[in-house]
Specification:
The protein is mainly α. The protein has one domain (about 5-375). Helices cover about 70% and strands about 0% of the residues. The chain is built from 17 helices and no strands.
Amino acid sequence: MQPRIQLLDVIRGLCLFGILQANLLIFQYGVFGKDELELFSPHSVDWFSYYVVKIFIEGSFMPIFAFLFGYGMVIMRERSLSADQKPKRKLLRRFLLLIILGYLHGTFIWEGDILLTYGIAGLLLLMFVGRHSKTLLIWSITLLSLSTLLGYGANDMSELDISGLKEYIGLANVTYSEGTYSEINQFRNEIIPFEYLGIPDEALLLMALLMPLMIAPLFLFGMYAAKKQWFTVPSAERRMYKKGLFLIPVALLAKSLYFIFPEVHWLGMFSLLGANLLALGYIFLIAFLYEKTAHASSLFQGAASVGKLSLTNYLIQSIVCTLIFYGYGLGLYGKLGVTLGLLLGIGLFLLQMLASRYYLKKWKYGPFEYLLRTFTYWSFIKKTKSNEHTKETA
């Protein structure tokens, strides 16, 4: 069995940190309220923190997860083929469970779920898992170009019912900050925000169909990277990592343009392109720093532990943050502020690193990783205690 690639666990763990920081805007202000921050009368320091999140974080860590999903699909396929097993059945079961978990997560805990989208995208992209690396690269670039073009006018709010938007945000503020669990759950599942915005059903259907397309480019690029065996020997790839760092300033410029010229709506294209390029830049940056420090950094060790328990940690983030911000918990919805939210995210992630390292000294799999593994391989696996000297495929 191939050794587990620790660098991928590090990337996965740090990706969870970025996703947490981006999601804290939604936990605090809601899916629509986070883009109308002026309604919450933020302090000037919160405006600064807000733009830091918008430019450096938001939209650039979900694609990293997509990259890792694609990479993992190829690894699982190769491992199954070497054992004379049928890989597509395993992948099919894996993505079906992610869809189920995503549906339950989005319905009963938090509407910002990403598992459902990844599960659907994984099913749609199963046809690519056995393709040649060149084919994967061509499709990745093609879909990235297409999704970029579809971002034309994405930031144009002129066609929306602004009064309806404000009405919905006000209703959400009261419900999430003061409501009971049943009231919030009812609001999340029965109140349709798009009715307040004046968006027709046809547009909603189109948006739902296009959502997997938005993450498909990095999904496919992850498959390409796995075919090329990237990250298996970091010391031999230092030059590639260094070249990849140039993506970061280019991507940050692309993401910043809309905030510099908000009246130019077609710059939304560059926001989407910049988000994906920044995701790749961050992947190369993490790999570069990991190789530089000979992966001895306690930060990387902690991030790797979080990454090994990524599904469990992702769901824990939702549970903890809803308890902090929603009315059935501390009720801090709309009250904490962006800056303190960032600090909260750092604190929560540090706790997750400590807890994950401790847990992995006792057990080999997290509870949801165990469930996913059991469902994928269609057999119960003994939940053995962890052995840090035992390594397995990523």
